[in-house]
Amino acid sequence: MIVEIDCGNTSIKWRVVAADSALVTASGAVAGLNDLQSVLIQYKGQCLFCRICSVRGDESDQRLAQMLLQTLEVRAVFAKSSQTLAGVVNGYKTAQQLGVDRWLALVAAHRLYKDNCLVIDCGTAVTADYVSREGMHLGGVIAPGIKLLQDVLHHRTTLPQVSTIAVPEIANNTECAISAGISSMFGGFIQQQLGCAEQKFSDGYTLVLTGGDAHLVQQEWHPAVLHKDLVFNGLALACPYSEHGSDA
């Protein structure tokens, strides 16, 4: 079996796949390394390989690698942004500056849909990346995600925290006004990206959504493809087991 880990800014997503078929046999999300260790300890002696996408930096990655070596007795392989992968050419002048999660997601979208793609990842940050059907990454944008907007407004003012997102409209109480305002800002960002995609891809494109808040976009903009495991799909392309089996 293979353990796959996606370390985002807020949570750590994990899943277990069969080495011979890539069938997902277990998955979940945890808050931190201690919780992850508690989950993965059951797979000690069974794991052949571990591949990781992480945006948390070198120090955090070193702690994760050490924990996995102790817990699963395997050396983890971390995906890195590269100049090319699976037929996609990185659009950044310095390839390694492109967030690895964004890179893996757009590469996976290109492999899956064989079309011009606008890939929107709705996580702690919301990102949009453009990739042509020929495999050229055209670049992208980054903005605060919904929960980050909520947190910043709450912590930098005396306004209350809200946990839901309402349809943008004029509200008659503070909580609904905040919720509708954040939804309006988020929706404006998405709408602008769709307009940009229509200009770049005059012959059509596929809107690919991933991330924890992606369902909010899918509810408002159709057609769209919701793919919660997009980063994991790209991770398998970047770190195939067959190339690293001797290290596992």
TrEMBL record:
Gene3D superfamilies linked to this entry: 3.30.420.40
Pfam families: Pan_kinase
Keyword Kinase carried by entry: yes
Residues forming the catalytic site: 101 (proton acceptor)
Recorded metabolic or biological pathway in which this protein acts: Cofactor biosynthesis; coenzyme A biosynthesis; CoA from (R)-pantothenate: step 1/5
Binding note for cofactor: A monovalent cation. Ammonium or potassium.
Annotated localization: Cytoplasm
Membrane-spanning ranges: none
EC number(s) on file: 2.7.1.33
Residues that coordinate or bind ATP: 6-13, 124
Catalytic reaction annotation: (R)-pantothenate + ATP = (R)-4'-phosphopantothenate + ADP + H(+)
Annotated binding of K(+), by residue: 121
Annotated binding of substrate, by residue: 92, 99-102, 174
Cofactor annotation: NH4(+); K(+)
Molecular function GO labels: pantothenate kinase activity
Keywords of the record: ATP-binding, Coenzyme A biosynthesis, Cytoplasm, Kinase, Metal-binding, Nucleotide-binding, Potassium, Transferase
Quaternary structure annotation from Swiss-Prot or TrEMBL: Homodimer.
Protein family: Belongs to the type III pantothenate kinase family.
NCBIfam families (UniProt xref): baf
Role noted for this protein: Catalyzes the phosphorylation of pantothenate (Pan), the first step in CoA biosynthesis.
Name recorded for this polypeptide: Type III pantothenate kinase
High-level lineage: Bacteria, Pseudomonadati, Pseudomonadota, Gammaproteobacteria, Pseudomonadales
